[in-house]
């Protein structure tokens, strides 16, 4: 069990940055980071971004220095590396996700990409009106975002159909991608209905100007979002809307 760090060589925000990783678990990485006072916002899904002025202290605290290429190899060998596209951030990795078949994982990713991943199977729509969020009832009695399965159309086309179903016309909104949950399930399972090994569940968003019909859903005040929706797998996308 070792914590590793590469030299500060990655420019951003007027300074250089290092990557701090574990070869064992995210928990080990979080424990080390917390003990050294690193802010949680520095966590990027499979590593912490560390400013250059912290490098020497982290090495003194026990982080083993290696070059940048070796950090990547360490993550790959450990199985902890998470793939993402440019302008995306992993806000919640869930190894051994309990709602998936054994040996699977889920990653919640915010995105500023124009398009959802090609393996998107469901689209959800976070419609904001002021500080309120449009929600619809679930069969189990809870609440969720309006959603639609992606069958033969593209995710963007599925969202347009969903907007039309909710608001009467596809032109009522111009949704953009906010993020997605990516399931990684190595092999098919009788109790798992989605494609393997990858299936994505995208969240789009837009602000509604004007009224919506009474049958569109219910409007949830922002102060209740976490209480009502905090258990949904996609919740970290909405929680980190500062990254949209």
From TrEMBL:
InterPro entries: DUF4031
Occurrences of domain DUF4031 (ranges): 3-77
Natural source organism: Pedococcus dokdonensis
Protein name: DUF4031 domain-containing protein
Pfam families: DUF4031 (PF13223)
């Amino acid at each position: 069990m070792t914590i590793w760090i590469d030299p500060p060589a990655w420019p951003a925000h007027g300074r250089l940055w290092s990557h701090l990783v574990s070869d064992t678990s995210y928990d080990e990485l979080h424990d080390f980071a917390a003990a050294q006072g690193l802010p949680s916002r520095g966590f990027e899904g499979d590593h912490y971004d560390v400013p250059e002025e912290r490098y020497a202290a982290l090495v003194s605290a026990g982080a083993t220095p290696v070059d940048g290429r070796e950090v990547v190899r360490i993550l790959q060998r450990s199985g902890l590396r998470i793939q993402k596209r440019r302008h995306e951030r992993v806000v919640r990795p869930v190894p051994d996700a309990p709602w998936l078949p054994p040996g699977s994982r889920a990653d919640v990713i915010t995105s500023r990409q124009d398009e959802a991943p090609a393996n998107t199977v469901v689209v959800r729509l976070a419609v904001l009106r002021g500080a309120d969020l449009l929600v619809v009832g679930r069969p189990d009695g809870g609440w969720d975002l309006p959603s639609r399965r992606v069958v033969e159309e593209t995710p963007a086309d599925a969202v347009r159909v969903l907007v039309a179903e909710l608001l009467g016309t596809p032109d009522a909104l111009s949704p953009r991608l906010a993020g997605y949950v990516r399931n990684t399930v190595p092999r098919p399972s009788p109790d798992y209905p989605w494609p393997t090994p990858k299936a994505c569940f995208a969240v789009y968003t837009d602000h509604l100007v004007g009224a919506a019909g009474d049958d569109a859903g219910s409007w949830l005040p922002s102060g209740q979002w976490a209480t009502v929706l905090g258990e949904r797998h996609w919740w970290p996308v909405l929680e980190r809307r500062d990254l949209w």
